[in-house]
Structure formats: structure tokens, C-alpha cells
Amino acid sequence: MKRRTVIFVLMVAFAFSVFGSGTSSNPETADGYEMILVKGGTFQMGNTRRDTEGDNDEFPVHTVELTYDFLIGKYEVTNAEFEEFLNEAGVSRDGKYNGHEMIDMDSRYCEFSYRNGKFEYESGKGNYPVIEVTWWGGMEYCNWKSRKEGLMEAYNSRGNFTGKITEIKGYRLPTEAEWEYAARGGQKSGSDFKYSGSDDLGSVGWYNRNSGNHTITVGKKSPNELGVYDMSGNVWEWCQDRYGAYGRSSQTNPEGPDSGSSRVFRGGSWNSSENYCRVTDRGKGNISYSNTILGLRLSRTYGDTNKNGTLVIENPKNLSVYVNEKLAGEGTEVELEVEEGQYKIEWKEGPNTMAMETVKVERGITIRVSEGDSGTGTSGMTTTYGRISHEMVKVEAGSFEMGNTRGDIEGEDDETVH
User: Fold this and answer.
1) I need a labelling partner for 145 at 20 to 30 A (CA). Which of 6, 20, 231, 396 fits?
2) What DSSP character marks residue 414?
3) SS3 356
4) pLDDT tens digit string along 365-401?
5) pTM higher than 0.85, yes or no?
6) Own/partner pairs, 321-328, CB within 8 angstroms, 24+ separation
7) What confidence tens digit (pLDDT) does each residue in 12-41 have?
């Protein structure tokens, strides 16, 4: 498609601050949810200290390489953050959404109530870690947060990733390997600490000897080397992986077993003894399990902003163009540098929406508004779009011999020439 010569150049810079995915020049913040950048690297996973209180499932110690950078929540997800999801996503009063229980509203320990058509957390507990949340609740919270910020969702309806972990940009639960690597201090780790950030649990975590038998406001103890809080104690944290035994071989970007009835959680809790708060201890529970000691923390694969190309919006009608409900400009063409994600494009004339299109950008994409046939689109307008960065090569029709024409001795029986 031939591109018009009128470009809103200033919108390229504008896109960095308005239409990015949250991985800004300071990767420790992401649209209000504070996250810490963890550089990829190689580490030894498992009970490297050979702690005598360790369990058999912490062995064998094995090498894990993470070839990508990722962001991990600076704090555990709080009641205030989870309340927003419960109310905005349309979770039913019994805590269910999309056929699954998000949070156990029947538990006497649940810190939420449902009054006057909305969820409310207990007074004074907004910055306490959310509890009684299921793995499904963690997964749906991640997808809701991704949608809210215009990111492609990390999960499909079955709870499986929508793509490769190195490419998914949406929020998700950390893999077990990501969790342990971050708990150990990631690229800033200088010691093989027993707990996350120290050999002294009392300085970095809340457990059964100092918690007063309940959860505590997040971030009150010392962080680990990365600046991440409460990875030992306060609440256990759901991970992405299904539970399974470790193998001896080295692994690259592991995501856990392909099957299994239980999911991993890590870190220990306010009710745990010291041994359960070690960075190598492993917990597990059914995907619908919830408990007063169990919460979550978020993760995201990290990539440079504008990595995926350009969103070009052709606008021959000179209407106002809105992207994700923010004004992008007026004129014959608007060009934005964007990251992979979901974008809602609207062309407006005054307060009236003339046309609208919602697209998922995976590479460069061009979207154009034009006059539509009577009754099509909104107000007689229609939109078309096409990708601009995927090149193809023409292949002329012809005949050929298909199969093992060379007679390679290593060929298989199913390569008969025809």
C-alpha cells in the first residue's frame, strides 16, 4: 500500500509515553504496578545449600538458563489491586468468573465482602496481600490487567500461554524458574542465601514467629538484592508451572510439565516455619485451591518499547483519531510506534464515532477508514487494515518430482518419489 506523505511526526514521540505497554525508560514501573527488571542469566536451581530440612523434590540441583529479561512484581498483589479486578471484570458475587472460582468468598478468612453491588475489602487492609485466591483467579487477573493496558493476553481460556514465553508481553504468573531466580537475587545475586535476601528470615520475611498470626502490609521488611519484597513469608505465591519432579539435565526457559493436576506455589507464609520460607522450598495445590496463606505476584516478559514496528492510521476524511480512547491526532495519516498488543481505533467527528476497529498488533499494521455501503460500519463508514511488514515471494505454478529423489540412505519409507 502506498503511504501518504502527510505524517504527524510528533505522534511518534507521543506514543512512547501514551501508547507504550508500560515498559518505560524506567522498567521498575509499569502503569501503576511497580515491577523490577530481572536480567536473563544462568543459575543452579534446587537445594544448592543441601539444607537438611529440605525436601526430596528440591533435588536434583540442575542448571537453568533464562535467555530473556523479565519484570517481576516489586510487591505481592494487594487487596486494593485485586478489588479493582473483581469489580471491573464482572466477577459474580460468589467470586466466580468465566466458569471458575477466582476467590473463595465463603471462607471465613476471606478479606472481601459483597455489598450494594460491589466487592469491598476489609477496612484498613488495602495494602495487605490478597489471600484466598485460586490459580484461576491469578490467571484471570493477569488477563484483565493486560486488556486494561492494551497488551495481548498471556493466557487462553484453558489457562495455557498464547505464545512463546520469550514473546508474550501480557501479564502472567511467574514460572517456577523465574520465581526462584528472582528470589535468589537474579543478576545481582552475590550469595547463596537461605531466604530471599538474607540468611536471617526475621529481617526479610513474616513467618510464624513474628507475624502475629496474620498477613502484614506488603513491603515492611527488607527487600532482596533486586529490590523485591516478601519473597520469603507473608503469603505463598502462585506460579505458572504444573508441579513435577526435577530432572538432572540442563534446561532453557522451562515452563514446567505439560500435564499434571497441581500447580506450584512458592515462598512460605505468615503461618509457616522457617524451612518453608527457603528460596528452594516448593508447595503445590489444585488449580482451584485457595487458602488464607496463599496469594500471588505478577511477572511479564520484558522487551524494548517499539520493538514490533509501526501502527499507521490512514484518515482521508480528516476525522479525529483515538487510540485506546486517547486522542492520537487529526489529518490524513497518523503514524505511531507501538509494541505488540491490542488497540482500539476510533475515528470521530465531534462527539460522534464514525468508525471503530479493534486489532491485535503483532507486527506493523495499516488501518484505513473509508466510505462504506449503506448500513455498513458506523454512520456509513467502514475500516480496512493490512499488515505491512510481512514480505512474501511469488511461486510460479509447475510440476516436480516429490519425495526422496536423491535416494538418501537416511531417508524414511514415507518419502516415496511420485
Assistant:
1) 231
2) G
3) strand
4) 666 666 554 333 444 555 554 443 334 566 878 888 8
5) no
6) 321/345, 321/346, 321/347, 321/348, 322/346, 322/347, 322/348, 323/19, 324/19, 324/150, 326/18, 326/19, 328/8, 328/11, 328/14, 328/19
7) 333 333 333 333 334 444 456 899 999 999
